Amino acid sequence: MKFPVLQGWMVGSGQRPLRKQLAITLSAIFALSILVAVVLLNQLFGLQARDLIDQRSSFFMDAMLAVREYTSKDVNPIVAPLNEGPGGFRPESVPSYSAQTVFAYLKAKPDYREYSYREAALNPTNLRDKADSFETGVIERFRSDPSLTTLAGEKSTPLGPMHFVARPIKITKESCLVCHSTPDRAPASQLLTYGDSSGFGWKLNEIVGAQIVTVPQKAVFEAKDRSLFTTALLFVIAFVAVGLITNGVLNQLILRPMREISRKAEEASVTPATVSFDERNRSDEIGLLARSFERMKQSLAISMQMLKDRQGRS
Amino acid sequence: MSAAGFSARGPLLAALAMALGLMGCGQQPSARVSLCGPAGQLRVGFVGAEEGRGSTGAVVLPDQDISRLRDLLTVASQCEVMLEPVASPEQAHQRLGASEWDVAFLPPGLAALALESSANRGYSLLRPLGQRSQSRSQLLVRAGSDRRAVADLKGARLGLLPRGSLTGFYLPLYNLHGLSLQSVHYALSYQELLDQLRKGQLDVIAWDAALPDPGGDVRVIVNDPNLIPVGALVLSQPLVAADHQPFLKLLDESAAQLPPSLGYVAGVLPEAQPLQRLRTVVTNVESWTLPLEGRPYAVYGRKQQLKDEGVMR
Q1: What ipTM was estimated for this complex?
Q2: Which among A197, A221, B217, B246 is placed 20 to 30 Å from B13, CA to CA?
Q3: 0.90 cut: is pTM over it?
Q4: CATH code for B42-132+230-270?
């Protein structure tokens, strides 16, 4: 299929100066290139932004696991005996509490403000951690497929679409069951704080909840858009620079010598003897053209001389 | 600059505009300003309007009510909501003291306590919660007990609701000022206290006059004259300073979707005066060394008299 109008507009039909024709052609090529690049990079950066968020989410969850481990191994043995005494319940002994508290401090930093971390459970001690319908679905998937280690995807919320990454929480330590098996094993201070209606009946090796990191989709798009804007801007700067350099080179190598040859040719048509095509010494196409004009000038001078001689004799 | 130069840059700028337009496709306009706490979330405490009424095993809030309330608060605040229903007023007391809640649904005692905090860490009352009732603090003993007056309670084993409860903690201790007790014990519900009283594990317990008649096997030994006001929805001072009216308006419009047990009253400001009066009680008791579970306790400390005070016995 041929588009003569487009082709003529793009490559030039001789209706405009050469410099303008080249500028239009280059601009069209550059604009098309940038458009195609932006469309492709939009997809690529979207995937990269999501990967970055997934990586950061995984890091958060690993960090929170480490906090849980530290609390379980080092803090709980010191604090848990206090919960057997007459004072109030000290939640610092609970790994989930320490992980969520540490994350709250992390979230206070502007870089992590968009991230949310939950340790949602089907039957938590603190009802703040009660899984909603979406979280329940995630936990049930982990429970039905124990080989599943991570789930990621999108969820809709009243605040708009969110990207989430989730990992299962499995009870692997017998010490967890002190507070979560039956009320009679739990510290009295725990019962007085949380009651005896929730957070019990957990079993060893059971998946009871999930670590869930969520980020607004808007944040993913914004991260992608920042990368895309920077890249598109670099493309435009590079193409403008290429266009200007091409323009300058074209002017220096072709347009200026051609304008000079054209001026001399016009002068030679009147007084050929006074004109000299110095460009004939060049070995490129401009030199070839100058040599042709030089021969034409000499022919014209001879013809004019013969005409003068003939007029003198008559 | 030549005309050719302009003609070369025009399409490039158009391409940039196209690129920017393409990038803008994924963004959504923000419809409303969000009402978030300093942590970037809206931390909501839920104690409910009626403390100590359920049995110990009863859940604070049914699952479907938790989800519905969380969604409603999210829509109203346009912020991620961390809803924490708590069974124990003691836990709520800690949260309020540490300013760890931005919004809270509180019973009267905790509402008075929230007002008690310093100006920059305190809370403001937004809406009343709960139904008006004949709620008064009482102390009960077994019907066959020899104890007839407050002075007879010296050396008794006292049962209370956790710290934070007006009828179950502050007023009973306020009315027992000057007595030495053998021990103090706590339970999450009046019913559990009543069971322990009947079993002889306790000698005297805190009670609320608005509760159903406990039966003939127990009798009232102290009847506090102060009528207990309703609870309140409270908002932390930083959020009061922010634009919280759209949040409140949406809650008012969606009052029917709030848990009925909450007794949320739309469009009405709570009466602060009755709570201010009871703040005196809360302030006094909070300034004392407070009793520990199962330990002897002397009810002693500065006691500021309430106006028109009179304890009926």
Answers
A1: 0.74
A2: A221
A3: no
A4: 3.40.190.180
